[in-house]
Every structure is written in C-alpha cells, then in structure tokens.
Amino acid sequence: MTATRGSGGRAQPEPEFLDVARVLRPWGVRGEVKVEILSSHPGDIAPGRQVYVGEDRRVCEIQGARAQGDYLIVELAGYSTPEQAEALRGLHLYIDRSSARLLRPREYYRHQIIGLAVVTLEGVELGKVEEILETGAHDVYVVHGPRGEVLLPARVEVIRDIDLASGVMRVSLLPGLLPE
User: Fold this and answer.
1) Could you tell me if residue 76 is inside a domain?
2) φ, ψ for residue 21 (rounded to 5)?
3) Are residues 22 and 92 in the same domain?
C-alpha cells in the first residue's frame, strides 16, 4: 500500500501534472542542480525526459541526471551557469500526468489519498487524510477528525480498502493507533 510521491468526500481532483522533484540548490559550476526526489519512479527524472519547471510549468528537457546519495544531480537544458541554476532553487519539477507510468494494484498517487474520508471496518468515522509522511519503512497517513490526529501506517493490515470512486479509505485499527 503505497502512495506514490508525485498532492466523507472525494480525493483531490486528478491534476494535469505530477510533482516529481524539488530543486534544493545549485551544484557545481556547470548549472546543475541538486534535487530532492518526490517520485518513487526513477524514470520520472531521466535524461531525455521532458519536465515542467515551477508553477508556470516552463518546458525543459533533462540532459543529465546522476545519483548523489538520496538525491539527484540534474542538468536541465538552458541552464549552464551557477547563476541560472540559482533561479531554480525551491522550484518543483513536474511531468505530464498522461506520460506517467501505470500504477500497480494497491498503489496510488499522493493526490488520490489526500482528502479521502477514513472509516474503520466497524463504521467509525476517523476524519480525512490531510497529509502523508514518508518514513524509511512505509508512508504514514495523517488523519484529522473528531478523534483528533490519527497516524495510520500505510500497511495492508491497517489500510484494508481504498475506494477512490466514493472517496473512502476503510481501515482496521491496530492497538495503540487511536489517541487516548
């Protein structure tokens, strides 16, 4: 049960673009940038791939990408100096949703999970998913509702069913998951 990093009631509407990376800072003297990867699919940030930069979605091609620990060093077409790269600091890189790979069963985009109503198998309403925390082991869904904040590990023994059409996530609570 994973929310792909890419954003009662319905989950957020399907976005046209998926958020795949955030520029942290310039890197080196050739205009490269160090980026935080927000996608769980490495091919989203690969040489030859077209990305959209910033909120105005400027089209740009990735000319190079290499691993640097948990980050990537990315070379974008049209950015060849540290000064040009500095202008990218803090901006996000997006891909067109239509070019994203198909998800496996029980795999969802973040924007599909955020906003879902959360209900136990017994019918107790816990609230809505407001945020997704990424941990080393698995994602954690932050639910706000009448019982306060509830943290739900995104594991099959807890998240029993996700119905995107009705906007509901059904869960089985393990001992200790509800606040006292």
Assistant:
1) yes
2) -165, 160
3) yes
For the chain, the straight-line distance linking the first and the last C-alpha, in angstroms and rounded, comes to: 26
Res. 3 pLDDT band, cuts 50 70 90: low
A 10 A CB-CB count for 128 gives: 20
The distance of Cα 180 from the centroid of its chain, to the nearest Å, equals 30
Specify burial of residue 178 (Cβ count, 10 A radius: 0-12, 13-18, 19+): middle
Residues 64 and 90 in one domain: yes
Closest CA to 128 of 168, 157, 85: 168
**CA 3 to chain CA mean position, Å:** 7
State the Cα–Cα distance between residues 109 and 175, nearest whole angstrom: 28
Structurally, the chain folds into a number of domains equal to 2
Interatomic CA distance for residues 32 and 170, integer angstroms: 44
Model confidence over 83-133: pLDDT tens digits? 999 999 999 999 887 777 666 777 777 778 889 999 999 999 999 999 988
pLDDT digits (tens, 9 = 90+) for 13-64: 667 888 889 999 999 999 999 998 887 676 788 899 999 999 999 999 999 9
